[in-house]
């Protein structure tokens, strides 16, 4: 059976306006029976406005009355000529054009510091492809020689919360792949401090010794003698 539109809002309305059991409401909305009970107790769904399934043509009054009389019966959704909205499959995470050139560096950082992450998790975090991840891992990427691992959070490719969430999931599944004793990443070029350039005549330049006061006195005496 197809799930009704806005299942939680529909469940709220059915709880408040019918004598249906939690089991019947859970089966119709495709929610867990414990979740229906939590909604009825006010622990879940506070502030959700109930959606009338009769008014929008998903149920009939007769169908609700039929199931109220027999708790063993399950609600059947009314047939409608209106087209059902299609759920769009989630693709790769969108990355702005200005930051796409940073993705290979972010992939290199994730592979270095979090090898426990699966390729699917890396794709979800920064919006790349498994083919690109494989080439960077195998060092067959066209720009492998110039890649510098960079934290995707500092580059704005993902949030720290998203990264931590995926890392927790990956470590629970692949604890043997957790990286240990990882060398720190070199500073990016824009943060490196370049040595002071040499100016002409600096090398080999010797400090001239200033004349002493006694030298001036000796020169003055020689002048008077002459």
From TrEMBL:
Basic and acidic residues composition-biased segments: 199-215
Location of the region described as Disordered in the Swiss-Prot/TrEMBL record: 176-226
InterPro entries xref list: TrcR
Pfam families per UniProt: TrcR (PF06242)
Protein name: Cytoplasmic protein
Species in which this protein is naturally found: Thalassospira profundimaris
């Amino acid at each position: 059976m197809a799930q009704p539109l806005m299942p939680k809002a529909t469940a709220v309305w059915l709880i408040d306006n019918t004598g249906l059991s939690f089991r019947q409401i859970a089966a119709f909305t495709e929610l867990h029976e414990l979740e229906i009970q939590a909604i009825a107790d006010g622990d879940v769904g506070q502030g959700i406005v109930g959606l009338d399934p009769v008014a929008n043509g998903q149920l009939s009054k007769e169908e609700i009355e039929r199931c109220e009389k027999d708790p063993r019966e399950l609600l059947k959704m009314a047939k409608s000529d209106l087209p059902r909205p299609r759920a769009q499959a989630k693709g790769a995470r969108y990355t702005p054009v200005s930051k796409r050139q940073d993705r290979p560096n972010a992939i290199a950082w994730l592979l270095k510091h979090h090898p426990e992450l699966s390729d699917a998790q890396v794709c979800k975090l920064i919006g790349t492809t498994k083919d690109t991840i494989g080439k960077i891992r195998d060092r067959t990427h066209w720009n492998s020689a110039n890649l510098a691992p960079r934290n995707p959070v500092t580059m704005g490719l993902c949030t720290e919360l998203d990264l931590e969430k995926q890392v927790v999931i990956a470590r629970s599944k692949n604890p043997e792949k957790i990286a240990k004793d990882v060398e720190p990443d070199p500073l990016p070029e824009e943060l490196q401090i370049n040595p002071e350039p040499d100016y002409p005549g600096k090398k080999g330049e010797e400090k001239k010794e200033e004349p002493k006061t006694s030298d001036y006195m000796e020169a003055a005496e020689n002048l008077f003698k002459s």
